């Protein structure tokens, strides 16, 4: 056999081997058929921009934009691509200390609405109120952001300013200039009510330290002679499911707390080992009680460990995971829905209270808390 034929056979074998290797890798990565075509389209466009665009381009920015576009195409207000600064802000927020104005927001009907205003924060000082609609941040309409991006743009370094255009019912739109401050969030605070034996713990959100703070307040109330407990989850937008579960383990009787169900049907069960509920419980919720708040309220309601008082909750029954990427950026992605012990998924529906009590701006007293006290007194 001639050298030319041997060389040709070697070349054909190498090409065939490479082709089979590539096809094998593509199969392992799930890139058959249309997916392969889409991948070729993507890299083809990227390469054309890099080589033919009229000025030089930054390849990293192209990838950032591509990832951002993919996530936005989901149409999910809770899934978001976070660049370095936004990812850093999110980590600081869940750690319990961050530069901001002290408000939490809800996203419904294409609106960004203030759900709660923390005491002693810049937001409270300038007069922001629950129910205010945020129209723009630093002159940029919120419609140009993904919903979850709005909070990231409001946060920033302490001492810097942010401008918010606020729409309030029955008032002209007004721009507020607010100086950011370090928001050190103690998310659980407790007290005995009216020198009685009824304990009260307000949980403002579920951060990394919330479970420890709740236990600290719970233990103080026990030492003070508590005989029953009211847990206030109103205007609580949620937070870390792990923190919520740790609190639930102190309150929910033995059995399921919540089930997290992914697209493929796989389930992650969170259970309580508590042999018996120690005290009579009443839980307060409202339309701004969301996510982890609804997990706790739903578990206590389904197991009949507590009476739920207030108004129907927000209805956020989806679970997000935050994934760090390779440039100090991150991806927040909805990966599952959660189900209460009775098998209910309240995403988009909310939790109906056992006793409905509405509040209005004209009310001069907290009728929901008064009803909770009345119900708890009957249990003692």
Protein architecture, described:
The chain has 380 residues and is of the alpha+beta class. The longest helix has 26 residues, at 3-28. The protein has ten helices and 19 strands. The termini are far apart. The strands form five sheets. Strands 10-11-12-15-16-19 form a six-stranded mixed sheet, with helices on both faces. Strands 1, 13, 14, 17 and 18 form a five-stranded antiparallel sheet that branches. A four-stranded antiparallel sheet has the order 6-5-7-8. It is 34% helix and 27% strand.
Key attributes of the depicted protein:
serine protease; Pdz3 Domain; 27% strand; Putative carboxy-terminal-processing protease; 10 helices; alpha+beta; five-stranded antiparallel beta sheet; 380 residues; 2-enoyl-CoA Hydratase, Chain A, domain 1; transmembrane; protease; six-stranded mixed beta sheet
In short:
The protein is of the alpha+beta class.
């Amino acid at each position: 056999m001639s050298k030319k034929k041997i060389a040709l056979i070697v070349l054909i074998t190498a090409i065939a081997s490479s082709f089979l290797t590539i096809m094998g890798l593509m199969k392992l990565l799930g890139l058959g058929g249309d997916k392969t075509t889409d991948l070729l389209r993507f890299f083809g466009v990227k390469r054309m921009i890099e080589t033919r665009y009229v000025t030089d381009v930054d390849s990293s920015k192209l990838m950032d934009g591509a990832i951002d576009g993919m996530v936005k195409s989901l149409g999910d207000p809770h899934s978001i691509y976070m660049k370095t600064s936004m990812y850093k802000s999110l980590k600081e927020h869940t750690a319990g200390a961050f530069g901001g104005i002290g408000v939490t927001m809800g996203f419904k009907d294409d609106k960004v609405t203030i759900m709660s205003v923390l005491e002693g924060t810049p937001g409270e000082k300038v007069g922001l109120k629950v129910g205010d609609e945020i129209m723009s941040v630093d002159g940029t309409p919120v419609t140009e952001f993904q919903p979850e991006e709005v909070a990231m743009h409001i946060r920033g370094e302490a001492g810097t300013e942010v401008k918010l255009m606020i729409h309030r019912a029955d008032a002209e739109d007004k721009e507020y200039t607010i100086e950011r401050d370090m928001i050190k969030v103690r998310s659980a605070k407790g007290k005995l009510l009216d020198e009685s034996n009824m304990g009260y713990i307000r949980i403002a959100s579920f951060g990394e330290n919330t479970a420890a703070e709740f236990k600290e307040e719970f233990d103080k109330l026990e030492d003070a002679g508590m005989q029953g407990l009211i847990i206030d989850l109103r205007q609580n937008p949620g937070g870390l499911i792990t923190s919520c579960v740790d609190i639930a383990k102190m309150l929910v009787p033995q059995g399921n707390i919540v089930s997290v169900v992914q697209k493929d049907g796989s389930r992650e069960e969170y259970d309580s080992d508590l042999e018996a509920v120690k005290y009579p419980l009443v839980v307060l919720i409202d339309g701004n009680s969301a996510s982890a708040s609804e997990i706790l309220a739903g578990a206590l309601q389904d197991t009949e460990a507590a009476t739920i008082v207030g108004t129907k909750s927000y209805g956020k029954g989806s679970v997000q995971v935050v994934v760090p990427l390779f440039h100090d950026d991150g991806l927040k992605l909805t990966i599952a829905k959660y189900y209460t012990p009775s098998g209910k998924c309240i995403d988009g529906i909310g939790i109906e209270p056992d006793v409905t009590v509405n509040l209005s701006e004209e009310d001069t007293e907290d009728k929901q808390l008064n009803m909770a006290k009345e119900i708890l007194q009957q249990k003692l």
